Amino acid sequence: xxxxxxxxxxxxxxxxxxxxxxxxxxxxxxxxxxxxxxxxxxxxxxxxxxxxxxxxxxxxxxxxxxxxxxxxxxxxxxxxxxxxxxxxxxxxxxxxxxxxxxxxxxxxxxxxxxxxxxxxxxxxxxxxxxxxxxxxxxxxxxxxxxxxxxxxxxxxxxxxxxxxxxxxxxxxxxxxxxxxxxxxxxxxxxxxxxxxxxxxxxxxxxxxxxxxxxxxxxxxxxxxxxxxxxxxxxxxxxxxxxxxxxxxxxxxxxxxxxxxxxxxxxxxxxxxxxxxxxx
Length: 279
Fold this sequence. Notes:
Elements lengths: L2 H25 L8 E10 L10 E3 L5 E17 L10 H10 L17 E5 L3 E4 L7 E9 L1 E10 L18 E9 L2 E9 L9 E11 L4 E6 L1 H4 L17 E3 L4 H9 L6 E6 L5
């Protein structure tokens, strides 16, 4: 782990930890809206519209994509009291940016630290297998403050040494995807590695909208939405190997640029609150 990466993580987590403590103090940790709670945090992959299983999706460019492997490093995760300022973004502005696909240091608008009080957190990174399917992968128990969370933010980053062998399959990358894209008679098997090194401004997914009434023993689930990640991707612009092996989607390609921008947008993830089941 480089000194820059370590410093970036430490600064981010110290700031957000202070925000959580400060928020609790401001609320007085009393009453419905300020009571200290412990809830569970989890991960799962959302089904694409019309899909029968996770990892199957259809892009807005007319390609059907079937992922055969998909792993990523995700976290920390922070839940905020304030609503997302990005929900009102005009779709036309988003589409213009995707058409241009110019890499930018500001792939996500807004000030990350204007979310107000931090009501909950998962303060570490995890390796997430997006194709595991089934029930949510419960990460563990998380401290928080009772109240309504209206948005959340998370980090995408390279695996750290703390993950150990769990991250070996990622080969040092932030995300590895493999699969096949189909359109008409065309068939494009592919592999792609995405990397999100520091600074932290380039690792953030900011202000994902939610509406979650946090309380003891419930489950907050972060849902990855890979069907949003391939928006604007033109697989027909890739050059396929002559031997029919998967094409490596490299950073200079249009598809890689589309993925790199889309996976850091507030539409790339969603969140759901599942209260504790009684009885």
